[in-house]
Amino acid sequence: MGACRHRHRCDGRIGFPKQQTDMTAKKSPEELRSYRWLGRDDLRSFGHRSRLRQFGYDRADWAGKPVIGIINTWSEINACHGHLRARADDVKRGIWQAGGFPVELPAMSLAEPFVKPSTMLYRNFLAMECEELLRSHPIDGAVLMGGCDKTTPGLIMGAISMGLPAIYVPAGPMLRGNWRGNTLGSGSDAWKYWDEKRAGRIGDAEWNEIEGGISRSFGTCMVMGTAATMMAIAEALGLTLPGASSIPAVDANHPRMCSAAGRRIVDMVWEDLTPQKIVTPAAFDNAIRVHMALGGSTNAIIHVIAMARRVGIPLDMARFDALSREVPVIANITPSGKYLMEDFFYAGGLRALMAKMQSLLDLSCLTVTGKSLGDGIAGAEVHHPDVIRALNDPLYPEGATAVLTGNLAPHGCVMKPAAADQRFLKHRGKAIAFENYNEMAREVDRDDLDVTPDHILVLKNGGPKGGPGMPEWGMLPIPKKLLRAGVRDMVRISDARMSGTSYGACILHVAPESYVGGPLAFVQTGDEIEIDVPGRRIHLHVGDDELARRRAAWTPPAPHYPRGYGAMFSAHIGQADEGCDFDFLEGQAAIAEPEIH
Ligand code: FES
Questions:
Q1: CA–CA separation, 576 vs 488, rounded Å?
Q2: Which of 154, 233, 442, 490 is buried most deeply by CB count within 10 Å?
């Protein structure tokens, strides 16, 4: 069998500096993993080949070629990935061009708006599915297609654990929203105008128009939410082609990026360029610094810790806090700033942002191109200096995320100071505590609720086990009586997460969570809580004796699931500060290749 070994070149199109790997090919066709399925002269291989012929393929289509699995999270209920069915064909075009054999493998789509109780319940499910799809099939390398929040970490965690060469193809953001000439941002403007509706400032007709204008094309949320943050982190880690994460989903650059990724993965297989060679501790530091400069979503902390632990890097929240103090927010994007991802792309995108902050990055890190991160951003320029600011003219002087600890959160909690009313960064107030989301939803809009803007709303049982699945409940609604008085922010504390499109003085991911007996479980209405973001402290002003008395009187809640995936989730899920991975998925222990008999 003769291998197609020609090297392909990309022109210097927007976002794609010339790919020109000088890595020496290492594998022979007989060393391809797929050879065990397709290359041998035995009965099983006969069966595999005859089933490929059933599709109309012939030996010339696969013989001696790397088999590339395209893990596609397209579905008909996930508009963020609505274009990925067609984009998979662009990826295949590139794979064929480069002498590979493409096989599309559908995987769980995790549509953020639809999957209940939370997509976070299923991130690890997707990670397992990705890993096992690759392991159980004759696959030599993988193209990972996703973008909607949990799909990026889920696919990357699975690919890391499988350890085959893999390249990430981000779905890209949708176009800007529009309502009566006003720009609308995903999520962020939904929350904003919902508050306006609750306050009686807009009516049903306006609300209906906003519903039709806020999501105008396929693609992910177009603010710096979790999707945009995680796609950028994938690029900063070196797992995408340079510039890939910033391209709007419907821009013609996007299908070109997809076919370039298809060409590149074939060479990556011959080079045996696995994720383990790319996602080093230095690459994770780069990713965290980029996250901070972007003013990225708090959710990224959980996902990045989980990804790092899959390669055996013991990353923790303290590293985020340390790096956050060194990196200013320079991306002026909603919800921390005012522009949207489409503007970010026109301003030069992530390559330009990384070029602006290159003094803070390790540019020697290897990427999927086979070249360095520095090579990938060479020549990138900022075209709109208000969208991508200079380091000495930041939007916010410190990083996106502050990690607080104290007797209320012994293992930490997180806050996004740039997206909060600055007066709450040092604050002491009385708690109004809700035992669960339903109680909060029932009570929060009551006219007789005894609440002022200085109160602190506390939500329990929103964590990994308690939610379950750590739903995005952390941006608790401002009580209606305060909304009517013009209040738009107040301190809110929970063990839940918050959408990356959300904003406000929300303290999240309190660990350990209340459901397992973390101190949050013992907060009562009227307790005083003190927050000191510059000092990174959070303190519940209740004496140790009283806390011990409350703990002794506490009864653990009943399990959510009697059987099924939820029961497995509850038995094995880690806490937020640990990345919420399953205990049995962490680590690097080698798993044998499947027997073929
Ligand atoms: Fe898919 Fe926001 S709903 S990225």
A1: 28
A2: 154
* pLDDT tens digits, 552-597: 999 999 999 999 999 999 999 999 999 999 999 988 888 999 999 9
User: How far apart are the CA of 151 and the centre of ligand 1, in A?
Assistant: 10
The three state secondary structure string of 514-545 is HHHCCHHHHCCCCCEEEEECCCCEEEECCCHH
The pTM for the full model equals 0.93
- 373 in Cβ contact with 354 (< 8 Å): yes
The pLDDT tens digits of the residues spanning 466-504 come to 999 999 999 999 999 998 899 989 999 999 999 877 789
Beta strands at 506-507 and 491-494: parallel, antiparallel or unpaired? parallel
CA distance 398 to 327: 6
201-258 pLDDT, tens digit each: 999 999 999 999 999 999 999 999 999 999 999 999 999 999 999 999 999 999 999 9
Atom of ligand 1 nearest to the CA of 227: 4
- Measure 145 CA to ligand 1 centroid, in angstroms: 14
Whether residue 527 contacts residue 433, with contact meaning beta carbons closer than 8 Å, is answered with yes
User: Which of 186, 191, 502, when mutated, tests ligand 1's pocket best, judged by the most ligand atoms within 8 Å of its CB?
Assistant: 186
